[in-house]
Amino acid sequence: METEKTEILIIGGGIAGCIAAISLIDTYQVTLLDKLPEPTERIGESLAPASQRILKQLDLLEGLENQVGTLYQKNMGMQSYWGNDQVHLVDDLRNPDGFVKNLDRQAFETYLRKTAEARGVRCLWGSKLHSSSYENARWQVQLMASETSLSTSTISASFVIDASGRQSHFARSLGIKRQVEDRLVACWVTLPNTKTNTMSTISASENGWWYSAVIPGNKRVVAFHTDADLVAKSELKTTASFLELAKGNPVMWSLLGEHENAIAFKGTVAANSTKLEQVAGQQWVALGDAALSFDPLSSQGMYNAMAGAMQLQALLVQYGFTETLQKIHTEQTENIWQHYLRHKGIFYQAETRWKESAFWKRRFETDHCD
Ligand SMILES: Cc1cc2nc3c(=O)[nH]c(=O)nc-3n(C[C@H](O)[C@H](O)[C@H](O)COP(=O)(O)OP(=O)(O)OC[C@H]3O[C@@H](n4cnc5c(N)ncnc54)[C@H](O)[C@@H]3O)c2cc1C
């Protein structure tokens, strides 16, 4: 079988992988692969305003803003029911980086993939990591076609970036484990939006918290977040069981109650906070969710993936594939993680109504606040 050579191989063409590829293509020969032939519909739409600086730096912002209404819609702010029954409004009117953008995630990821291709990144869609070995100071990475599970090719790379998301497939194949902070999951649905108020909404309840946002196509996403062991699996399986849970939260019930027949149940995904125990090694690093996965309450996952990619690009340009790069990347990632844990603690501890319920008790007992 023929072996292709590349300088940097990026495993995972999500936000972290695409931004890393686009930022590195002027300096290195880059190959980017993803197991999915094309992006699929997924939850995770709020793009933090600071991300726009990165998109601008990479000449991606104008292309995004030209597609308002299809790629994203402006988020007018957040109404939050957290800590008491009163609504608390947060908007970005005075934020110098502008408003949050509510993305169509599938369309945004397609936009990033197309830009990577157009800028000269060698892209292999529908190919997944099968196995790898380190030989003669290079990584030999075997790929497999996702659809047929047949081994297709080998790529020889000087450096590997694991951007495969919270599964961190490359690092995991090296035997590296993840530190797991909690068991948060998110169960989500979509439905047509019928309200004129398009602010996002967050609302705490006894066993977790709810979230709703309006995305392009006048569609609404609604998600319930709880710990996997606190609800029976059957309660997170169907529209009917989702609606039963929503009845306990009047704010969400007012969005969902009249639309039972228009709700599309999407499933339950992992949403817990985890950290890869080792985020860099001999000629490889982990990036984005592969390194650190955040609680969706933070709405920082995409920003972290982008900012991490930019920091890594600067390190790769300055230090190449060296131990210094590994050391600095490890320190930077650890600093972000510590900062994140402190903030997560502060946010959860602001909700004191159900201190004795298991969901909130756990979040009070893990004290990361200084
Ligand atoms: C419920 C929920 C809500 C969220 N809401 C928000 C939000 O509002 N705002 C926000 O900023 N963030 C949000 N996030 C977080 C955000 O989605 C992630 O932080 C972001 O997707 C991380 O990007 P990534 O590129 O690191 O990983 P991913 O987006 O997971 O991309 C990884 C890519 O790797 C590919 N891949 C995986 N394994 C392999 C393999 N073996 N071989 C090849 N390819 C592979 C996958 O197909 C995928 O395309 C949310 C997350 C959850 C769970």
Please describe what this structure looks like.
It is built from ten helices and 21 strands. The chain has 370 residues and is an alpha+beta fold. A hairpin with a 2-residue loop joins strand 19 (280-281) and strand 20. Helix 1 packs parallel to helix 8 (301-319). The longest helix is centred in the C-terminal third of the chain and has 27 residues, at 323-349. The protein is globular and about 60 Å long. The termini are far apart.
Topology diagram in text:
Layout: E1 3-11, H1 15-24, E2 30-34, E3 46-47, H2 51-57, H3 61-65, E4 72-74, E5 78-81, E6 88-90, E7 101-103, H4 105-118, E8 122-125, E9 127-135, E10 138-145, E11 151-162, H5 169-173, E12 178-180, E13 184-192, E14 200-205, E15 208-215, E16 219-227, H6 239-246, H7 250-256, E17 264-270, E18 274-276, E19 280-281, E20 284-286, E21 292-293, H8 301-319, H9 323-349, H10 358-365
Parallel strand pairs: 1-2, 1-11, 2-8, 5-14, 11-20
Antiparallel strand pairs: 3-7, 4-7, 5-6, 9-10, 10-11, 12-18, 13-16, 13-17, 14-15, 15-16, 18-21, 19-20
Helix pairs in contact: 1-4, 1-8, 8-9
Bound molecules: flavin-adenine dinucleotide.
Flavin-adenine dinucleotide (FAD) is lined by residues 11-17, 33-36, 43-46, 128-129, 163-165, 167, 169, 186, 223, 269, 271, 288-290, 296, 299-303, 305.
Q: Features of this protein?
A:
370 residues; alpha+beta; seven-stranded mixed sheet; binds flavin-adenine dinucleotide
**DSSP helical segment count:** 10
- Biggest sheet overview: 8 strands, mixed
- Given helix and strand content, the structural type is alpha+beta
The total count of strands amounts to: 21
Average pLDDT number: 94
**Contiguous runs where pLDDT drops below 50 for at least 5 residues:** none
| Radius of gyration of CA atoms, rounded to a whole number | 21 Å
What overall form do the CA principal axes indicate?
globular
- Measured as a percent range, the helix fraction is 25-40%
